[in-house]
């Protein structure tokens, strides 16, 4: 059972960072956007949740934060405002700031564990994938469980033209703890304004 979550950090050092003039703002992939991934999975988007523009809906009923993370996860319930602020900073070209969130969640043995996550905008620019090169924003996530020797780093690149995640790189300390968290890249991206193929 989740206990009350506490945001122990907020946007850090965003104001003094150099900002580039940009008109970009995060938007969920348009309805009809389909991403085929190198791990064999496929995500077909059907637009943003009308009640939460950071949550993207899929044709299979998933609700995915930034098109990638489960919206029902404790990190989003605990850190929604902080993550939204981080993405808003990225909209004006600022990178390097970070948010820190800690929360309690059920562990593998159903006992509550204390989780600490740090998210940051790692950069913006071109990223190479099997589907081609995308102008992307890189979200960097570090996950750790307090008192355990388990953590992982997850970097996800989001295409700024379509809003679709196009690449993920995961570094595990112990992959047994999260075997479904894998590295992948877009094998193809089909969107109303973008067409790429293998």
Protein architecture, described:
Helix content is 9%, strand content 45%. By secondary structure, the protein is mainly β. An eleven-stranded antiparallel beta sheet has the order 5-4-3-2-1-11-10-9-8-7-6, with helices on one face. The model is unreliable at 1-22 (pLDDT under 50).
What distinguishing features does this structure have?
single chain; about 200 residues; mainly beta; eleven-stranded antiparallel beta sheet; 1 helix; globular; disordered N terminus
Please tally the helical runs, counting DSSP H or I stretches of 4 or more residues: 1
Strand order of the largest sheet: 5-4-3-2-1-11-10-9-8-7-6
Compute the number of strand runs.
11
Overall shape: globular
End-to-end Cα distance, whole Å, is 44 Å
Estimated radius of gyration? 17 Å
Strand fraction band? 35-45%
Helix content: under 10%
* H/E topology pattern: EEEEEHEEEEEE
Mean pLDDT equals 84
Q: Biggest sheet, open or closed, and with what strands and sense? A: 11 strands, antiparallel
SS class: mainly beta
The low-confidence parts are 1-22
Topology, element by element:
Layout: E1 34-37, E2 42-49, E3 52-58, E4 63-65, E5 69-70, H1 74-91, E6 98-106, E7 112-129, E8 132-145, E9 151-159, E10 165-172, E11 184-190
Antiparallel strand pairs: 1-2, 1-11, 2-3, 3-4, 4-5, 6-7, 7-8, 8-9, 9-10, 10-11
């Amino acid at each position: 059972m989740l206990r009350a979550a506490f945001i122990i950090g907020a946007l850090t050092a965003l104001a003094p960072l150099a900002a580039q003039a940009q008109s970009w703002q995060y938007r969920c992939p348009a309805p009809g956007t389909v991403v085929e991934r190198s791990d064999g999975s496929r995500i077909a988007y059907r637009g943003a949740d009308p009640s939460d523009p950071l949550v993207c809906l899929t044709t299979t009923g998933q609700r995915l934060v930034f098109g990638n993370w489960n919206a029902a996860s404790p990190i989003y319930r605990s850190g929604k405002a902080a993550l939204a602020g981080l993405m808003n900073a990225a909209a004006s070209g600022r990178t390097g700031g970070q948010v820190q969130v800690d929360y309690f969640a059920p562990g593998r043995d159903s006992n509550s564990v204390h989780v600490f996550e740090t998210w940051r905008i790692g950069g913006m620019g071109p990223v190479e994938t099997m589907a081609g090169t995308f102008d992307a924003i890189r979200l960097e996530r570090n996950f750790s469980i307090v008192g355990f020797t388990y953590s992982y780093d997850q970097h996800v690149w989001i295409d700024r033209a379509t809003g679709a995640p196009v690449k993920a790189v995961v570094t595990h300390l112990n992959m047994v703890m999260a075997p479904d968290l894998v590295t992948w890249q877009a094998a193809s991206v089909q969107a109303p304004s973008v067409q790429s193929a293998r």
